[in-house]
Design goal:
heterotrimer, A alpha+beta (764), B alpha+beta (154), C alpha+beta (323), A: 764 residues, alpha+beta, Aldehyde Oxidoreductase, domain 4, Aldehyde Oxidoreductase, domain 3, five-stranded mixed β-sheet, 19 helices, 30 strands, globular, B: 154 residues, Ubiquitin-like (UB roll), DNA polymerase, domain 1, 5 strands, 31% helix, 16% strand
């Protein structure tokens, strides 16, 4: 018998038809009568004092309705470290600094107006390397910023990133093999196919509506509200309405300067103001993945058991602070809990430079850290004379373990993932020939059951059912294309005993939808799913109580399956759901069937030492790669790519595979071709020609292996999968390349030039 | 100075006055309010703006609107039939998980259509070649290729 | 984007007179895939665009032994020509990997030539194929060899008021193979790090152990086994893209092999000389040292590709095996 009707089924995404016919409305398509178009003037220098800004000519251009500079706006401070302002008035610290903004009746006039703004600068010496920026005498990005014990002006941020467990020094002394290496990872861009934008609109009472593409509507609402307070609009309401989102991958986890500027211009002009980034702006004025300089040492015993992991990182924070500066708190996860490692020490420093600044991107630091950790595992394994497969199995995490960061691992399919990958790659046969073909693997850990980054990790759901049996699920969760709407629909349909087609999921409006902390940390299936189950259970109980009346049974004896309420003792005694609903509603003293549930998982905030059970459950996975390296050109061809993931349960295998394929493809680009190139603070490849996204001809056939460990806490056993696919790709590929030609590349992307140079070096 | 152009749009004759510098994408989205065709990069480097001109794919963001005079343009809005039934390629995209955020989808579907019209039983390699001019950041292309293969009846 | 007027003349004479009338204020537009982008990027700002789309007689492919391609022929049309694929393979190799299908449906070979990028994919094989260009001005016509056409990145000998009217490719010698390799980071939508095209004419069309060409043996092994056949090089042309300010011929390298017996050592020397003749530079798309190294590797590989096409044409599988 088929256990589930909706769970585990390859159900098409609920909004797929809209998207396939071109009728989905993205922010790009949104038009409101009277709408003005906003454009931003960016700095001409990476580091300079602003002596004057003359906007008089721009203001006089016909069609221009408002021009704003930092001199005229209230002191709105934003960003994780509150060191950023929407328009800069005193100095510029990077080439993406916003200096002036124009609202005009069409985008071309707004562009023309920007050319008429005259800015006078006094150029200051700049610094583009974080290690240089840490040195005495380096140019100070924010002169007023002081730090350290002596509270001296410094470019090093006052952030507490330090994790210590056990005694790393002692463990090092007792290790038979110790590997010590430096790894470097650089900026890469999200490259959502639709660029960023928003529309800000005030009503007559100065309440704000933001049409947005945010992944965190409830938190964005708070950011906007805070801004309104600074503008003197303290008790005004903010409504966030999401259009269809053209890709997220973490890029919509932040509230950007252009959004505040839109609000300010909308307030000044009393008209809706739309911002839409060009592709060039998207590359240089939005925030990429956090780069890092990673100094790592790991050790093991004679028989290959890890003894310690000691990591020091230097992070280029860029000119202002966004989520990139918090990636160390998430990097701690693989550092402390990828494989069993008893002694851990980790210190990270974030340093201001005149470069661009980073924010969240799929994996949130874990791809960076995992590249270093799992590349070095192979290095260590070679030192110990142990096959990297056996090394990993020997140190693999197991269910029931408590890691050095106090993560409580309940289900853990890591060993199964490693084995599955090894088998598909014919590991023992194919390894170690160094003839131009090689195999490699790497693993990952990520939160799979929410992540208590804020005080709340919750999500609310409201369910109401109408007379016809349509189930309206109103969720706080955000669907940015990954399919959370459909997964929530499947979960509710299963719990409630109806079909997915009966469910409509609404998630787009903060006036209607309950609170959710946001689509991040791969938490949506788990948290929003559990929230939906909670509400569905309550609704089901209401239904059974109503049915109990008309069917003459007690509610405990009834159940619902496939739109039919039936008696458990006598299944032939049944009634269609719609009939029961109409009976409830249209009776005298009738009632609606409606319930809500707020689910906040039982995970913990990290304590002052960054320890605590951050998530209710953890997702593990392993990727394996077979490559062929052309020894004369250094080019790499991926022959086989296997992605094995412990997903708890696949609620929708088709959408799940989509997350793995998409994540892995992003990760392959991270490993081999993608790089946002900055020269003296300027992005020199702000276009799709020179920023090398993989095309359909470049992506290998990726095989996804779904390992189901049926997590007891997940909705129907599911864990998160949004990010895991992009985490272990780079080390798996780097390890395969080493197996193929004996060249170890420690900085990304692994280009043919680096491999060829490595081969030449080897030849000497 | 405006110029008048006449062309066929999704099977219907259209006559419209345009400024001569307009690109086809601007004509479609801004003037004719057919927002199904998307602007991804504005430089012909991503394929999100793909439409069919006399059955062949072009990047409408860099195509002069003046050159569609007398020709036939097909956008994503013109793919479903007169009764609104989806084209088999659209159905396959939906059924095979080939759509996530959906921004590349209109261009991708039209590239697939033009390609299958020319090569009805393609190999997987030929399919990848056929959509190589359409970037996608969400799907890794794999389910898109599966969908196109299914739509070709293989 | 800056506004411009768009004119659609119907004859070549009308084009020339419009060019004369507007002078520097006008630019010719063929497919527009380069021009429209340049206007958007503000690297050019014409007041008037003169379209070549409606002009008869310049969009045909004719073959009577000599290949004549009109400048308005799209890359896609060339891609689909079985005849060009067979007889002038290097050109097919190039258009196969140029941009994307969307670009190839619109972009013209004349536009590719006149935009004169150092990386121009269609140009490099034309150099190896020994093409000539016919140019028409208001008062005269001229015919020049394509390797005299380019004067710098984006610059050609076309004077104001002149227009390219035909690309003429001579019939190659019997037993000729040609090939083009675009060394790129991705397999579509990319510009080359380096482009290499070779045309090689052999003294005969069959050898005793042609089986070797189907194996994965290294080039040197194959060439050593072919020594007893005493294959002679009747003609060799080597063209390089992104190896100098303009697409170039490696003439010193060619002279080492022309008229000589083909051997591994000689081919090695040819490749090395070609690399030395080139003047690659560092750019964000590639480093000079790597480009030079790749010239060495790819000239040899493309020469082998040419040989393979002559000696075993029915088994050629491009571009899968590169040696």
């Amino acid at each position: 018998m088929d256990e589930f009707i909706n769970i585990g089924k390859r159900i098409p995404k609920m909004d797929a038809e809209q998207k396939a016919t071109g009728s989905a409305i993205y922010i790009h398509d949104l038009k409101i009568p009277g709408m003005l178009y906003g454009k931003i003037l960016y700095s001409s220098h990476p580091h300079a004092k602003i002596l004057s800004i003359d906007t008089s000519k721009a203001e006089r251009l016909p069609g221009v309705k408002a021009v704003l500079t930092g001199y005229q706006i209230p002191p709105i401070k934003f960003g994780f470290y509150k060191d950023n302002v929407p328009l800069k008035a005193n100095k510029v610290c990077s080439l993406r600094d916003e200096i002036a903004a124009v609202a005009a009746i069409d985008p071309e006039i707004a562009e023309e107006a920007l050319d008429l703004v005259k800015v006078e600068y006094e150029i200051l010496p700049a610094v583009f390397d974080p290690e240089e920026a840490m040195k005495e005498g380096a140019p100070l990005i924010h002169e007023e910023h002081v730090g350290g014990k002596e509270k001296k002006p410094t470019n090093v941020l006052n952030l507490p990133w330090r994790l210590i467990s056990g005694d790393v020094e002692e463990a090092r002394k007792n290790s038979v093999c110790v590997a010590e290496d430096r790894f470097k990872v650089t900026w890469v861009a999200h490259c959502c196919l639709g660029t960023s934008g928003c529309v800000a609109q005030f009503d007559q009472k100065n309440n704000l509506t933001m049409y947005s593409i945010t992944q965190i509507p409830s938190l964005a609402q708070r950011d906007y509200t805070d801004a309104l307070a600074v503008m003197g609009l303290k008790d005004k309401k903010v409504r966030v309405i999401k259009t269809t989102i053209a890709g997220g991958f973490g890029s919509k986890l932040d509230t950007y300067a252009f959004e505040y500027i839109a609000i300010l211009l909308a307030h000044k002009t009393r008209k809706p103001v739309k911002f839409l980034f060009t592709r060039e702006e998207e590359f240089f004025a939005t925030s990429p993945r956090q780069p890092a300089i990673i100094d790592i040492a790991q050790g093991c015993t004679k028989d290959g058991r890890l003894t310690f992991r000691d990591i020091r990182m230097t992070l280029d924070n860029g000119a202002y602070t966004s989520w990139g500066a918090t990636t160390p708190s998430v990097m701690m996860m693989p550092i402390s809990s990828l494989y069993k490692v008893p002694n851990v020490r980790y210190v990270a420093r974030c340093v201001y430079t005149n470069n661009t600044y980073s924010q969240a991107m799929r994996g949130y630091g874990t791809p960076q850290a995992t590249f270093a950790i799992d590349s070095q595992i192979d290095i260590l394994a070679e030192m110990a004379g142990i096959d990297p497969l056996d090394f990993r199995l020997r140190n693999a995490n197991t269910p029931g373990e408590v890691t050095p960061q106090n993560f409580k691992i309940n289900t853990c399919g890591l060993k199964e993932c490693i084995d599955a990958v090894a088998q598909k790659l014919d590991w023992r046969q194919n390894r170690g020939r160094k003839d131009g073909r090689g195999v490699g693997m790497a693993s990952m850990i990520h939160v799979g059951g929410g992540a208590r980054v804020y005080k709340s990790d919750g999500c609310g759901t409201i369910i109401k059912i109408d007379d016809f049996g349509t189930v309206n699920v109103i969720t706080g969760a955000t669907d940015m294309g990954q399919g959370s709407d459909t997964v929530i629909g499947q979960i509710v349909a299963e719990e409630l005993g109806v079909r997915v087609e009966d469910v409509v999921v609404t998630h787009t409006d903060t006036d209607i939808c309950p609170w959710d902390v946001g689509a991040h940390a791969s938490r949506t299936t788990f948290v929003a799913g559990n929230s939906a189950i909670g509400a569905a259970k309550k609704v089901k109980q209401q239904l059974l109580e109503v049915a109990a009346h008309s069917m003459g049974e007690s509610p405990e004896n009834l159940d619902i399956r496939d739109r039919t309420i039936f008696s458990k003792k006598d299944p032939e005694k049944k009634s269609p759901l719609g009939k029961i609903l109409r009976a409830a509603h249209y009776a005298a003293g009738g009632s609606m069937v409606m319930a809500e549930h707020f689910y906040d998982p039982s995970n913990e905030n990290l304590d002052r030492e960054f320890k605590g059970n951050l998530s209710v459950t953890y997702a593990y996975g392993t990727h394996g790669v077979e490559v062929e390296v052309d020894k004369e050109t250094g080019q790499v061809k991926i022959l086989k790519y296997i992605a094995a993931h412990d997903v708890g349960r696949a609620i929708n295998p088709m959408l799940l595979e989509g997350q793995v394929y998409g994540g892995a493809t992003m990760g392959i680009g991270y490993a081999l071709t993608e790089k946002l190139v900055l020269q003296n603070g300027r992005v020199v490849n702000p276009n799709f020609l020179d920023y090398k996204l993989l095309t359909a001809k470049d992506v290998p056939n990726i095989e996804t292996l779904v390992i189901e460990t049926n997590d007891p806490f997940g909705p129907f056993g599911a864990k998160g999968i949004g990010e895991p696919g992009s985490v272990p790709t780079a080390p798996a590929i780097a390890n395969a390349i080493y197996d193929a030609v004996g060249v170890r590349i420690k900085d990304l992307p692994i280009t043919p030039e680096k491999i060829l140079a490595g081969l030449k070096q080897k030849g000497k | 100075m405006k110029r008048t152009i006449s062309f066929t749009l999704n099977g219907d004759p259209v006559q419209v006055e345009i400024e001569p510098h307009l690109t086809l994408l601007q004509l479609l989205r801004d003037k004719l309010e057919l927002t199904g065709t998307k602007e991804g990069c504005s430089m012909g480097e991503c394929g999100a703006c793909t439409v069919l001109l006399d059955g062949k794919t072009i990047n409408s963001c860099i195509f002069p609107a003046m050159e569609i005079e007398g020709k036939s343009v097909t956008t994503i809005e013109g793919l479903a039939d007169a009764q609104g039934s989806l084209h088999p390629i659209q159905k396959a995209f939906i059924d095979y998980g080939a759509i996530q955020c959906g921004f590349c989808t209109p261009g991708m579907v039209l590239s697939a259509k033009a390609f299958l019209d020319e090569n009805p039983k393609p190999t997987e390699e030929e399919i990848r070649n056929g959509i190589a001019g359409n970037l996608c950041r969400c799907t890794g292309y794999i389910q898109i290729v599966q969908a196109i293969k299914a739509a070709s009846g293989q | 984007m800056k506004k411009f007027d768009y004119l659609k003349p119907t004859t070549l004479d009308e084009v020339l007179s419009l060019l004369d009338q507007y002078g520097k204020k006008a630019a010719l537009i063929a497919g527009g895939t380069d021009i429209v982008v340049m206007i958007k990027q503000k690297t050019m700002s014409p007041d008037v665009l003169i379209s070549l789309q409606g002009i008869p007689g310049i969009d045909q492919i004719q073959y009577d032994g000599t290949l004549r391609i009109g400048p308005m022929v799209t890359h896609r049309a060339i891609e689909k020509s079985e005849m060009i694929r067979k007889e002038f393979s290097a050109l097919s190799d190039a258009v196969d990997v140029l941009g994307s299908i969307q670009i190839r449906n619109v972009a013209t070979i004349g536009g590719n030539i006149c935009s004169a990028a150092p990386s121009a994919d269609a140009v490099v094989p034309l150099l190896a194929l020994g093409a000539h260009l016919k140019i028409r001005g208001p008062k005269s016509e001229r015919r020049i060899s394509i390797d005299q056409f380019f004067t710098g990145p984006g610059e050609t000998v076309l004077a104001e008021g002149e227009i390219l009217t035909e690309i003429e490719i001579p019939k190659p010698l019997v037993n000729t193979g040609s090939a083009y390799w675009k060394h790129q980071r991705r397999q579509a939508l990319d510009l080359p790090i380096l482009g290499v095209s070779v045309l090689l004419s052999l003294s005969k069309a069959s050898v005793t152990c042609s089986d070797l060409l189907c194996t994965t043996s290294p080039i040197s092994v194959v060439l050593h086994s072919l020594e007893e056949d005493e294959l002679e090089c009747k003609e060799i042309r080597i063209a390089l893209g992104v190896a100098a300010p303009v697409p170039m011929r490696a003439k010193k390298a060619e002279s080492l092999l022309r008229g000589k017996k083909i051997s591994d050592e000689l081919l090695e020397a040819v490749a090395l000389t070609a690399a030395e003749e080139a003047q690659p530079r560092d750019s964000i798309r590639g480093e000079a040292w790597y480009r030079r190294d790749m010239i060495k590797v790819l000239v040899k590989r493309m020469a082998m590709k040419c040989m393979e096409r002559v000696l075993r044409p029915e088994e050629t599988v491009f571009p899968v095996r590169l040696w």
